[in-house]
Fold this sequence. Notes:
The complex is a heterodimer.
Chain A: H1 5-32, H2 38-68, H3 76-95, H4 110-131, H5 134-138
Helix pairs in contact in A: 1-2, 1-4, 2-3, 3-4
Chain B: E1 2-10, E2 16-23, E3 28-32, E4 40-41, E5 52-57, E6 60-65, E7 72-74, E8 77-79, E9 81-84, E10 88-92, E11 95-103, E12 137-138, H1 140-144, E13 150-158, H2 162-173, E14 181-185, H3 192-200, H4 226-234, H5 238-245, H6 257-271, H7 273-276, E15 277-288, E16 293-299, E17 310-320, E18 326-327, H8 331-339, E19 347-349, H9 355-363, E20 368-373, H10 377-389, E21 396-402, E22 413-414, E23 417-418, E24 421-422, E25 425-426, H11 435-438, H12 440-447, H13 450-460, H14 469-481, E26 484-488, E27 490-497, E28 500-506, E29 512-517, E30 519-522, E31 526-527, H15 534-543, E32 547-554, E33 557-566, E34 583-586, H16 602-618, H17 629-641
Parallel strand pairs in B: 3-4, 12-15, 13-14, 13-17, 14-15, 17-34, 19-30, 20-21, 20-30, 21-26
Antiparallel strand pairs in B: 1-2, 1-11, 3-5, 5-6, 6-9, 7-8, 7-10, 10-11, 15-16, 16-17, 18-31, 22-23, 24-25, 27-28, 28-29, 32-33
The complex binds flavin-adenine dinucleotide.
Flavin-adenine dinucleotide binds next to helix 2, strand 14, helix 3, strand 15 and helix 16 of chain B.
Amino acid sequence: MLPTLRGRIETRLFLIIVVGLPVTLLYALFVGGLPYDGGLLLMLLGVLLALLVVGVILDPLYILIQRLRWDRDWPFAYQFFFSIIEFVIVLSLASLEWIPWLDEFAFQRGETIRLASFHFAWVFLIGFVLLLGPLAVLFVRWRYKGGRFGRL
Amino acid sequence: MFRVTIEASDGGSGSTLSETRELAHGDSLIFGRDPGPGGVTLPGQGVSRRHFELVADAQGLTVTDLGSTNGTQLAGVGLGSARITTGQRISAADTSVTVRYEEVEAQTAPVGPQSRYITPATPENNGLPPDIPARGTVDVSEVHTGGRPVSEIAYCAIGAGIGSFVWIDHLRCYGVHEDDIVAIGPEDIPYATYARYCANSQIPDHERLRSNSASTPDNIWGFPGYALRESVTTGNPRYAFQVFGEPTLAESYTPRAGRVFRSFDREMKRINWSRMFRKGLVQALRKTSDGRYAIYWRASRDVVPEEQRNQVTLAKIVHVSTGYPATRFVDDFQDFLGRHPEMRSLVANAYEPHEHIYQKIESSTEPVNIMVRGRGIVASRILQRLSEARARNPNIVILHSIRSPIRGQQGAKYGWARRPVRGHVELQPFNWPKASWGGDVRLKYENADAEERGRILSQLGGTTTAERSDWIAIGERGGEEGWYRAIFGSVKHIAVRGEKLGIDIKTPDGFDQSFEADYLVDCTGLVADLSRSLFLADLLNTYELPQNHAWRERDGTWQPGPRTGLEVSNAFEIEGLRNGSGRVYAAGQVTAGGPYLAVDSFLGLQYAALRSVDDIGANRLTAMRPIGPARSAIQWLRWCAGSTP
Lengths: 152, 645
Ligand SMILES: Cc1cc2nc3c(=O)[nH]c(=O)nc-3n(C[C@H](O)[C@H](O)[C@H](O)COP(=O)(O)OP(=O)(O)OC[C@H]3O[C@@H](n4cnc5c(N)ncnc54)[C@H](O)[C@@H]3O)c2cc1C
């Protein structure tokens, strides 16, 4: 990938909204059934928001790493690796109770961590697969725009 | 001695000439647009400066192509060198030359050259057919009464090579009907010119190109890329994984030439290329009084009777992608060929056919020294081919001529990053840093002014090769075993020493060194000089079109140097040709130095196509509109199904 800073942020937002939200709704439905388990849904949405915030904070750092690379690219392997790192950071921050909108005790319990991990796995894998090419099927110009949407 | 009668006629302008010459055994005679003293000046567009030569010996005459752009054909077959019998016809581009000869007594008084042009080219119209007006704008009624058959079309692509194909593929996916498009070019198949360059520079079908998986000239979305397709059809997941890990954890994936060609075949069928294609060469383009363009062209003799070959097409939107104007011979090389035409078979430009050299050195049992000049990707391919030849003749020694050594920390620098170096060659997966195609470098470069573009271009450009373990091993193993030797310095002079070539080199520290070689393969490139194309030269002159420049740093300031490509807007429009709602766009090497670095690459051609097709839609020049997500997805599904767009 050849993301720019604005491209990273736009693509991140896009994936959270277009992949993250529906996957979260489906996942909560699958785990908790109907009617929705409000606590679970709120927790997963909270994790999603935390992922977005942590990601946006880290994006400038990734851009710095890109600048050190001659090709100024971002290998898919890095994308894969750092996405997982971002999730680990969110879990750690949550268990330290540093994320105000997440339940103080939730991430000190194995069961919640397991649920959040599976939820993340789905959100992440679907988004990652889209980045490998399918996103360009909908947005022909996206790959030339460093990950931004719209006209060239 | 032979008396040689030469009759030439140029299909393009209708010029003809007839001449008689005497050739003693051992004499040679050079034919071309500007063959030098004593040579035969051939009329016709597409004839190279020195196109081919005839050499006489006791048995008869031999014709040898001199690395001409459009090649030399004997009885319809392209050639490097061949014997001819009397009365045979040689073709050089659109010009055909019939040579008759007979043995005569040596005492016969020589007959002086008698050139005679029936329709001489006038200087005012650059050798174009006289019916093409020299003015910038012609009246449509004049076009209709000019005597050429007229056809009218909405979109016309000039070149019919890969750039044209990609542009038309975009138009078709954007919903333009096949009957509204034509592509005019000399090759039936869009990748023919490219495939010829590949074959000559030793990239057979099974070899891999220097192109990324998502650079897919047959698919506007870049998905599925070639890696995924190769994994699916071979059942081997490693190619897809290569894309995942490249370029840090795995060598960059590149597609096999043959697979790319087959993908073209499939897409050609899908968009109905053969229906849109017109075989011929474009002579000139003129604005018309009704906001269109008149494209004067000459149809190939394969498809129309002789008297109907000159045609004119009126089009509203035109696209120019005519590729490289010529193969380059560096000055010392050109100079050597001029002095020693008889040594022609010992020296070759890597982009011209030179298979005979490999055949010779492989079948020889003697020691052979071969010098390879240059350190780019083509040199790597030639070195690879030579190392394969060593399996047949282990006495081959490779002398690799490189201008100056480059150590680890001397690679090009841009910002905080430095280009890696290995074996005195700078390494880069593709011909530009990847972010030039779509990352921050593309953005920064597009937004820069001419000077800053020039600076970025010179910082990021330069000769590089791909990091391939087999290529690195050739230099390292060959160096240890003594059959590969890197020679630093610039070539000063090439001469004949007995049966061999004598090559004088000035080393970086100022010493003169001399080497002997049996063969020399020059890998220093292709000429990008637009004025070498008659069509472009006329366009530049008629409309005084501005050109880009290569910029150079001198005494701390950056200054414009030699001219490069045509100046185009960020949407690849040649603004100097705008005519009401008529537009001319360009792509490929002819736009070098313009708004995008990697113009001469598959993905660069796709980018240029997208920009120009979007521009047509956004400005409502025709009924076509840019595609959004829904239409894009539908078109993609059609692509997958193989159904017409
Ligand atoms: C050896 C080599 C290897 C390359 N490898 C790669 C690679 O691996 N990956 C990559 O992305 N890019 C590669 N490129 C760069 C680029 O993608 C190709 O050169 C590509 O073919 C360029 O397309 P084009 O349309 O500009 O030119 P071409 O495909 O050459 O088409 C131009 C056509 O216009 C015709 N023409 C010229 N004058 C006229 C006229 N007056 N009227 C009508 N027709 C005319 C020519 O005969 C030619 O057929 C390579 C280039 C070379 C030379």
